[in-house]
Amino acid sequence: MAAAPEPGEAGKGKPFKLLGILDVENIPCARDSILYGSLGSAVAGLGHFLLTSRIRRSCDVAVGGFILVTLGCWFHCRYNHAKLRIQERIAREGIKNKILYESTHLDPERKQTNGNGSN
């Protein structure tokens, strides 16, 4: 008899790995890419079958659609994720500099207000 999981560990367990290598829960964009790829595969394969009625070629088109849509979604999502991380890093550095230089002679806002007040 297995022990019941504790309330704090309800969601924790063995991570879901696709094909034993791709950890879908912890890798950003992996889940969405796989889901969109499978949807693209179904649409491409079914659409090709309805147009041509060739089963083998429709399966080939479905596999190709899966690969193309999955890779397209993966690269698009990873690009946006990297761009967001860069923007967060720039904002974090700006806040850190604001905290460091506030009320010192190196504060750029202080120089601007002093220049405007003397005119």
How many individual helices?
Answer: 3
What integer value in Å does the Rg equal?
26 Å
Give the amount of beta strand, in percent. under 5%
Uncertain segments are none
Terminal CA distance: 82 Å
SSE order, as H and E? EEHHH
Largest sheet: 2 strands, antiparallel
**How many beta strands in the DSSP annotation?**
2
Which sequence of strands runs across the widest sheet? 1-2
Structural class computed from helices and strand pairing = mainly alpha
Overall pLDDT:
80
Q: Tell me, briefly, the overall form.
A: elongated
Approximately how much helix is present in the residues?
55-70%
GO cellular component, one term: mitochondrial inner membrane
Keywords: Membrane, Mitochondrion, Mitochondrion inner membrane, Transmembrane, Transmembrane helix
InterPro entries: Cox20
Subcellular location: Mitochondrion inner membrane
